[in-house]
Amino acid sequence: MTLEERIEAFAELGELIKDISEENFLALSRRVENTNNWFTPEQTKNALDGLLVFLDRESLTKWLSKYHFPEVLEPKSIGILMAGNIPAVGFHDLMCVLMSGHRACIKLSSSDQFLIKWLIEKLISVAPRFELMISVEEMLKNKDAYIATGSDNSARYFDYYFGKYPHIIRKNRTSVGIFEGGETVADFRELAKDIFQYYGLGCRNVSKIFVPNREMLISFLDAIEVYSNVASNHKYFHNYEYNKSIFLVNKEEHLDNGFLILQENKGLVSPISVLYYEIYQNQTDMEELINGLSSKIQCVVSRKGWFPESIPFGQAQCPTLGEYADGIDTMAFLNNL
Q: What is the Cα–Cα distance from 138 to 116, expressed in whole angstroms?
């Protein structure tokens, strides 16, 4: 397949997703939720809407125009060990491998089995030649290169087994929000999207905020009451009740609005239903701190993107095609094999 044919195939997949009927979506989302209770129909819709941003013909063409695609006479087999923290999180890696002309050999996460298989099935339905370029495997042995996503612990395992091959190995990351001091109710609610979408399970979810003063925290908690329905998910609410009981038993100081707990903490990665906060003195100190934590942070959000190299509140889960996980250009890696 030529690059133009591959672009057309993914654009057609986008059209297919866009045109899915309500009945078919409900059937799909129920199957997805049955395999993982975190993946509610709302979260599956969020994931598919996010893919539609990728699967736009003009966006695909613009993204790929900056790369040189040598003719692949003998496609290499690329092992992809997918994460499963949010629905279809491994799709971008699959798309990069196929767009580069290589063969995608996938090990699915046990947490995200159905939706990725559904997307592959639909992609093959619009471009049957992809069937020979995609395989779902249990053991990814002796591949030409590897792309693996996991925790810091699993990254050590991946490095041990795949370190001798060309590879991208991703570790734990999280995202943070920075308050300036003049945020409005609307700003706080936009930030809440970055906190609660996918129930906080993604590396682009905000798990910590930096604030110039504590007084802002009460205004923030009041403003985000509109997101209280997050507690209707029994898995999320179980996490909330568990963490609340730990804070109460240990008599740890915290703020609580009935579905989110705020705790002052130097850590970056908070438990589900908990948001860490830290007071900062000035922007210079804040910039130095963020620079020092860059290897652990996926993205930074702030009101209208006022903080250097940040994105606006509410946009954390809206990456563009060229915003690669961990800042590693996956397409350049594949093209250079």
A: 15
